[in-house]
Amino acid sequence: MRPTVVLHGYEAVKEALIDQGEEFSGRGSFPVFEKAMTPSLGIIFSNGKTWKEIRRFSLMTLRNFGMGKRSIEDRVQEEACSVVEELRKTKASPCDPTFVLGCAPCNVICSIIFQNHFDYKDQDFLNLMKRLNENISIASSPWIQICNTFPLLIDYFPGSHKKLLNNVAYLKNYTLEKIKEHQESLDINNPRDFIDCFLIKMSQEKHNKQSEFTIENLTITISDLFGAGTETTSTTLRYGLLLLMKYPEVTAKVQEEIDCVVGKHRNPCLQDRDSMPYMDAVVHEIQRYIDLLPTNLPHAVTQDIKFRNYLIPKGTTIITSLTSVLHNKKEFPNPETFDPGHFLDDSGKFKKSDYFMPFSAGKRICVGEGLARMELFLFLTNILQKFTLKPLIDPKDIKITPVNNGLASVLPPYQLCFIPV
């Protein structure tokens, strides 16, 4: 039982994560995941020099991703076309979209890390997906919250945390095999993907005994990118479709804007976002409303610090309530209502908000924010351009309350029909 500080409300969260970002940039304790990973490595659970260097490298690599000849947007657009093809195969009959909407972001991450684009029936790919999917459900269960509070249970009690640990081990082994393949075929002058870039950096630093660029660090970093970059986006997409069925008037307005800006015959691209304020507002409102990571990942203070007349000792865990920011009544009138108007001004133009923090804020803001926002816009716009969403029950009976709310908000399962336009 250790003292923990909870920050509630926009002012407190901003003051800590943004105004005193350096001091609040540590990673707090998360015992179950620390058991599964090497907590001192990678991006998500590391601290200090390791965290700074690996984060900077990952950001640069994702940003400058002109690997091969294709940008990240090309990869996302290609995947959006695969999603549309898969949904066409349902022939407008009732289906659960979980699988297809899980495959898409997972495949984008695979193409960035491994240069692999999997077929949706590939057995390796299905195994990866299944394990990532299980982990987000397990990590959001009440049992894991108990294990995080009483870490002794992790070693001595059976429970779903054992499955989570096995799944993480599977992902690590799979990644190690891929790294070996890359080492054998590496061309220093022609990096194909994230692994190649990391291996090149390793060879540049081979004389540096303190180098952070090691095979183990690469393995954990890839696990982090997978864990953070697949389930979060796919859950947001699934939740988005559920909300769009619940509010058909919003969907109709979005589809009208898509018709007007993109038309029926060309595929949407990221540049269209600037001309589509309503769609942009809808994507933001989906993220605000669903409040995917209600209490963020735990932070920690990196030194003794005086904060609002309290002395917080170095290493103290800091919990930031993102719910208290995303559901702030002053900034978002009727925060419990799904309303894209929260992000539109009086003339219908898109309106930014400092309170929009689904990716957290400050030094530890999500590394994949740009990628996730691109995926949400392009996948949803493509689906709504090509299909009408038909619920199996009356929209007013659709339940949109999360069934679990631990690490993440887990939405209720549902089915719908994708009717080709």
Automatic annotation (TrEMBL):
Organism name: Orycteropus afer afer
Task: Quote the protein name from its UniProt record.
Answer: unspecific monooxygenase
- Could you read off the lineage of the organism from its UniProt record? Eukaryota, Metazoa, Chordata, Craniata, Vertebrata
What's an example GO BP annotation here?
xenobiotic metabolic process
User: Could you state one GO cellular component term attached to this entry?
Assistant: endoplasmic reticulum membrane
**Gene Ontology MF terms:** heme binding; iron ion binding; oxidoreductase activity, acting on paired donors, with incorporation or reduction of molecular oxygen, reduced flavin or flavoprotein as one donor, and incorporation of one atom of oxygen
Q: What are its cofactors?
A: heme
Localization per record = Endoplasmic reticulum membrane; Microsome membrane
Q: What EC designation does it have?
A: 1.14.14.1
Q: Which InterPro entries match?
A: Cyt_P450, Cyt_P450_CS, Cyt_P450_E_grp-I, Cyt_P450_sf, Cytochrome_P450_fam2
Gene name of this polypeptide: LOC103205889
